[in-house]
Amino acid sequence: MAELKARKNEASVEDFINSVETEKKRTDSLAIMNLMQEVTGEEPAMWGNSIVGFGSYTYKYASGRTGDWMLVGFPSKTKPDPLYHAWF
Fold it and tell me: Which residues contact 83 (CB under 8 A, 6 or more apart)?
């Protein structure tokens, strides 16, 4: 079975946000990041090389396969701007 590419890592969220191409997109990304941090009470972390995520949970399939994923997050370099969240 394929491995999940977007795993939590130690990459710098600040460096990622600063690498966003336009000033408007950087400003929007910072606003979304601050809102998600306030709502979740979690610190932002990079998931893969392009998603800022907050919190995490472990899921398990009926097959027994498990994985970790963020509770909420967003990629700053895509159009339109999607938001990710866990479904429980």
Answer: 32, 72, 73, 74
- pLDDT for res 82: 76
Read off the amino acid at residue 64. G
CB 52 within 8 A of CB 29: yes
Cα 56 from Cα 20, distance rounded (Å): 24
Residues 57-84 have pLDDT tens digits of 999 999 999 999 999 999 877 666 777 7
Amino acid in position 79: K
Residue 72, CA distances (Å) to 55, 56, 64, 67 in order: 7, 8, 24, 15
The answer, yes or no, to whether residue 1 has pLDDT greater than 60, is no
Count CB atoms within 10 A of the CB of residue 76: 21
Beta bridge partners of 53: 45, 73
